[in-house]
Records
---
Amino acid sequence: MNKNGFQIKDPKKIPYLQYDKTIKKTILYGAESRKINPVLYAFKRLRNYLLLFLSMTAPFNNWRVRFNKWKGVNIGRHVYIGMFVFFDNAYPEYIYIEDKATVNAGSMIITHLNPSAHFESILTASVNPVTIKEGAFVAVKSIILPGVTIGEFSIVTAGSVVSKNVEPYNIIRGNPAVKVADFSARLKNGMRKNNPEKENI
């Protein structure tokens, strides 16, 4: 459990993608893979698609945060979510956004991969948690892939594709994203000046 009280879910394997399913088979297949009642799965799927649309287009940040929470995304306090942000719609409960983090417009956070079965020898169908740590900043149109943790007060520059964990107080850039700066000393010193009573930041 982290400082926000989030209980981080463990990674797990999921079924490979299946084609040519009827709506009924799709619902039964999805319910079985999640081990829930088919009616409940159908309701959650429809609800999440509606909330996806509302959360992407809502004109106010507190609405976008609320809609994403209702969808299942774990969100802390004072979080900013830009318009047209896409949070994984199949497994939103595997996304954790801590206090004072920012995810800017057009970014995507993906938690699962379920390729076709003919890729089984090289790709594992799985869902992995993504965590955006306290104070982290994800700039516009960035993509965060499954299993990634964005460290405290780190910065992901615009249009980056992040497939590996990001250390705290780092700036990363590009596709694939790589470290371009470490501003830990500068930021921590600035925080101490602004908060002289806090010696251990």
Note: The radius of gyration is 18 Å.
---
Amino acid sequence: MSPNLFASTWEFEGEQGDGTARAVRIGAQAGAEGLGATLPNRSGIEKRTAAAAPKVAAMDINIHNAFLPHTDPDKSLAFYRDLLGWEIRNDVGYNGMRWLTVGPADQPDTSIVLYPPEADPAVTDEEKRTIAEMMAKGSYARITFAANDLDGTFAKLAAADVDVVEEPTDQPYGVRDCAIRDPAGNLIRINQLSAP
């Protein structure tokens, strides 16, 4: 039995009791540990075992800035600085518009840049109207934060009369989170951090 698709990279270990042939990947493509696969049995049905994930060295890259649009810089400052307690890292004005860089004081290498969406010269007037409509509905931009005490954080936000989308909930996909909107309508989900 010799499948032409695997001939150059597979070596057969022999036929197994169920009529299938067991092959082991060999050569440089297999990596140091090799991967196993089950080849077609006599009926021609191919059955495969799960292959191990390739081992890839991680690059030394971090998230430095994320961008969210804003519609009112003063309301954004009140939300991110005064309510969340984040620091203002930069406040740049140009042509009557403002770009605000904010972030948690204990995470100096990660920031959010709040930008005026109308500043992009590549966006047409029609696209600007669409963006404004989507922002008004709260469906244009989103981000996920995390908190050690989700319920306590949510209680403070709700007491400050933020736009609540969802109270703290155990989600079917395995996280506990809540959802709010910032003054521009950006959806912010806040996950409960797992205990260490």
Note: Residues 2 and 176 are 52 Å apart (CA to CA).
---
Amino acid sequence: MQCEKCHIRSATVHLRDDTYGRDSVLNLCLSCATKALGQDLAGGEVAQLIGELIAKTSPAGASGHGPAAPTLMADPTCLCPQCGLTAAEFAHLGRLGCPTCYQTFAKDIEALLQGTHGRTEHQGGRPHAETAPEPARSTEREVLQVELEQAVAEEAFERAAQLRDALRRLS
């Protein structure tokens, strides 16, 4: 969903207004919402609040069974040099903006994986190596049929008899 003010960036902030008994929602990007509210929504305090909220609402953090989600980003003001995504926006959106974000927010991603899965390296099964599929019987039959016709046309009757027998074995 696009920002209803600038129509450029994705709307990540949804302001609800129910004054005069009329419920309305204004969908804004982080930049436009910051200007509209006069508050720095991408600052460290918001990132801390989001982290605390995640820790309270995540099953691991709320139940006490397992590690809670990290409450603070390594550096909430960290900025991706390619797409401009901040660490606070990453914490809010829960997704990255470009391939460079993986290097920029490596510490945050590692902390997130550690908090969610209890480890940062893959521990599990590996996909089996794909075996080459056997040729379909119909394809093999078609190839043998063409070779048989060629052998008959060339009057190579011994070869034609072998191909005929091979076709019968496929049936």
Note: The beta strands are 13-17, 24-28.
